[in-house]
Amino acid sequence: MHPPRSSRRLVIGAAVLVSLACGGDSITAAPSVNGTYSLQSVNGAALPVTFTDSLDGLPVQVTFMSPTTITLSGTNSVRIITTVRFVFGSINEVQTDTGTGTYALNGQQVTFSQPGSTSFTAAWNGSDMLTINDDGIFVFRK
User: Fold this and answer.
1) Residue 91: φ, ψ to 5°
2) Where are the domains of the chain?
3) I need a surface site. Which of 12, 41, 90, 135 has the fewest CB within 10 A?
4) In sequence order, what DSSP letters do the residues of 120-133 get, joined into one string?
5) Minimal CA–CA distance to 110: which of 32, 5, 38, 19?
6) What is the rounded distance in angstroms from the CA atom of residue 112 to the CA atom of residue 14?
7) Which of 24, 41, 1, 58 is nearest to 129 (CA)?
8) 67: cis peptide before it, omega within 30°?
9) Of 108, 142, 113, which Cα lies nearest the Cα of 126?
10) Which CATH number fits domain 5-141: 2.60.40, 3.30.70, 2.40.128, 2.60.120?
């Protein structure tokens, strides 16, 4: 069974920003987008969060659970781990999927790309949070 389109599209990535501060003999690195971000909330609700949809006229429940993470590396690669529970007819199972791809940072917008998938974007707050607005608002924190 394949998850609904909205949960499949939750596979994502981000970007690297390293800059140096000026002044004196000290060098200070600016905040970096690199790191592991964990899903904290969907549409303002803390995990676990359940959505109900339909597939072929039958109800489908998709519950986003922990661990759901996005890990951004200094080589512009991304690893996304998504854990969801699907309830569809007599099927009730938890699936954890891992996807990989690349990301690019432009200002505070992160664009994620994965071979064979549509790219998507996230807003980075310049510190410790990524927000994805795609069939819901998904907030990830370092």
Assistant:
1) -90, 125
2) 5-141
3) 90
4) EEEEE-SSSEEEEE
5) 32
6) 6
7) 41
8) yes
9) 108
10) 2.40.128
Helix, strand, coil shares of the chain, percent, nearest 5, are: 5, 60, 40
- Quick one: 134 exposed, middle or buried, by C-beta within 10 A (0-12, 13-18, 19+)? middle
CA distances for 51 relative to 31, 59, 115, angstroms = 34, 10, 27
CA distance 56 to 54: 7
The amino acid at residue 1 is M
Could you tell me which residues come within 8 angstroms of residue 20 by beta carbon, excluding any fewer than 6 positions away?
27, 28, 29, 30
For the record, the structure tokens of 111 come out as: 């664009």
d(CA 23, CA 20): 10
pTM (predicted TM-score): 0.76
Query: Could you read off the pLDDT tens digit of each residue along the chain, which spans 142 residues?
Result: 444 443 333 333 222 222 223 344 556 667 899 999 999 999 999 999 999 988 888 899 999 999 999 999 999 999 999 999 999 988 999 999 999 999 999 999 999 998 888 899 999 999 999 999 998 999 999 9
